[in-house]
């Protein structure tokens, strides 16, 4: 999205504002009070009154980016539509420039969506992986908007395979993710109050992958801002491990022919997940190891620091041979201190539901959510946590389209989990105990999931 996209956005905003006019802004009608809405702390904001805030209405417009959502959800999944309201795009002050959305070349970008029919709640998320603020529009925004929630998402303050170049000290880029999420939450609460006349009655934090990590971190460090959260395969950072830097080196070694299948099983990769390994060799393992190693341990191999802005896609995805022998436990204390800056403890202060697929081969559950669930229990917060293993689930639902006989999309279970969370928080209805949600053998696999009572659940 280059400058032309920015021009299109600005022009659309002018047209939208002209169409709504003062009458709609006076009360609670379509995009009411839009002239009063200001995002606290934003360096730039552009508002647009839209007939549909979901991807069904936004696809092909400057108000979403379908390409940045690629692979996260199954093409067979159903999505709601027809939610009119106000969208605000903008950015907070920042000195990095990885995000080129709208031609702004400015990080700390956000999107806030305010449906005309509001249920009193707010949902906040951060981008998964190294994606940007529109990445979870299909996976999260569409449905919560249809339920009446206001929605806010951040690009986390840096994005893309060179994100680790942001900041001056190891761990700076990831630490910024947490600050930007807190910043957006505080700002979005104020925006909601301006638009609807009072602050949200409930605020929920949620996310996928790195967004799941953000959810865990926010509920540990800022429980006062939220009423609960849903963590969809969040990344685990633990000071002494496990973390990505302890599980991925063996995967890189296998890519380079120096590790056996048994070595991956010993590192936590699930038996039965082998059919997914070739895809992850091409798309995830090599690049993920080197960019996070470059973020937390930049002196390990200066000849292969990570992705490079000028690299071809093939070079970005290729592994560094030195990463096959990477030994996190043996690295200097400075590396462990860098991870400690962003590490999780399990000391959540609000209800949290965690979902993790048993065939995730980017973040194996044995070295991730299994461990996080133990941290929560050891911290004495087990009563605030529910953990559901999704049989046949993997890290991105898009792979279900390639393997419908072997996988199950997690999206419908995520939606069920979100509903279970709100019932827990708002009506005191406790969710089912921790369990494995079995992979169904028939029915509407793409759009239904019962966290309790599934014939195949156990």
Structure description:
The protein has helices at residues 3-26, 55-58, 137-146, 172-196, 210-221, 244-255, 261-266, 277-283, 285-296, 313-317, 333-340, 369-378, 411-427, and strands at 44-50, 85-91, 109-115, 121-126, 150-154, 202-208, 228-232, 352-357, 385-390, 435-437. By secondary structure, it is an alpha/beta fold. Strands 1-2-3-5-4-6-7-8-9-10 form a 10-stranded mixed β-sheet, with helices on both faces. Strand 8 (352-357), helix 12 and strand 9 (385-390) form a beta-alpha-beta unit. The radius of gyration is 21 Å and the shape is globular. 54% of the residues are buried.
Salient structural properties:
alpha/beta; about 15% strand; globular; disordered N terminus; disordered C terminus
Largest sheet: 10 strands, mixed
**In one word, what is the shape?**
globular
Mean pLDDT: 92
How would you name the oligomeric state of the polypeptide chains in this document?
A: single chain
Strand order of the largest sheet: 1-2-3-5-4-6-7-8-9-10
Radius of gyration: 21 Å
Kindly name the structural category.
Answer: alpha/beta
Q: Low-confidence parts lasting 5 or more residues at pLDDT below 50? A: 1-8, 10-27, 454-458
Short description:
With 458 residues, the chain is an alpha/beta fold. It has helices at residues 3-26, 55-58, 137-146, 172-196, 210-221, 244-255, 261-266, 277-283, 285-296, 313-317, 333-340, 369-378, 411-427; strands at residues 44-50, 85-91, 109-115, 121-126, 150-154, 202-208, 228-232, 352-357, 385-390, 435-437. The protein has a ten-stranded mixed beta sheet with strand order 1-2-3-5-4-6-7-8-9-10, with helices on both faces.
């Amino acid at each position: 999205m280059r400058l032309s996209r920015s021009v299109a956005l600005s022009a659309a905003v002018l047209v939208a504002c002209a169409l709504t006019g003062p009458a709609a802004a006076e009360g609670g009608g379509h995009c009411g009070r839009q002239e009063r809405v200001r995002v606290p702390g934003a360096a730039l904001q552009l508002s647009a009154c839209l007939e549909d805030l979901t991807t069904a209405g936004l696809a092909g417009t400057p108000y979403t980016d379908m390409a940045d959502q690629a692979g996260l959800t199954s093409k067979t999944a159903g999505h709601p539509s027809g939610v009119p309201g106000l969208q605000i795009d903008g950015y907070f002050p920042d000195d990095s420039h990885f995000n080129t959305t709208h031609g702004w070349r400015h990080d700390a970008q956000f999107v806030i969506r305010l449906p005309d029919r509001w249920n009193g709640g707010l949902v906040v998320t951060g981008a998964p992986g190294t994606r940007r603020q529109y990445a979870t529009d299909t996976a999260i925004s569409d449905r919560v908007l249809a339920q009446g929630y206001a929605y806010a998402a951040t690009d986390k303050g840096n994005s893309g395979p060179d994100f680790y170049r942001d900041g001056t000290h190891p761990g700076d880029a990831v630490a910024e993710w947490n600050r930007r999420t807190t910043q957006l939450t505080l700002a979005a609460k104020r925006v909601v109050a301006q638009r609807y006349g009072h602050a949200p009655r409930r605020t929920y934090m949620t996310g996928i992958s790195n967004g799941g990590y953000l959810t865990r971190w926010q509920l540990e460090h800022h429980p006062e801002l939220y009423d609960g959260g849903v963590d969809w395969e969040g990344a685990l950072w633990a000071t002494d491990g496990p973390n990505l830097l302890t599980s991925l080196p063996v995967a890189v070694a296998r890519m380079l022919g120096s590790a056996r299948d048994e070595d991956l099983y010993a590192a936590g990769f699930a038996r039965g997940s082998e059919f997914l390994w070739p895809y992850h060799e091409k798309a995830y393992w090599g690049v993920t190891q080197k960019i996070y190693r470059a973020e937390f341990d930049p002196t390990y191999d200066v000849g292969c620091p990570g992705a490079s802005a000028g690299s071809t896609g093939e070079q970005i995805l290729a592994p560094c041979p030195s990463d096959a022998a990477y030994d996190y436990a043996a690295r200097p204390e400075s590396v462990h201190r860098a991870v400690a800056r962003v590490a999780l403890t399990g000391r959540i202060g609000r209800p949290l539901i965690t979902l993790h697929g048993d065939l995730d081969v980017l973040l194996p559950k044995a070295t991730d959510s299994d461990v996080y669930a133990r941290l929560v229990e050891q911290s004495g917060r087990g009563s605030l946590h529910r953990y559901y293993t999704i049989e046949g689930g993997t890290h991105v639902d898009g792979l279900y389209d390639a393997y419908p006989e072997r996988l199950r999309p997690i999206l419908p279970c995520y939606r069920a989990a979100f509903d279970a969370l709100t019932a827990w928080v708002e009506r005191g209805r406790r969710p089912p105990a921790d369990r494995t949600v079995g992979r169904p053998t028939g029915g509407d696999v793409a759009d239904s999931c019962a966290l309790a009572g599934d014939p195949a659940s156990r």
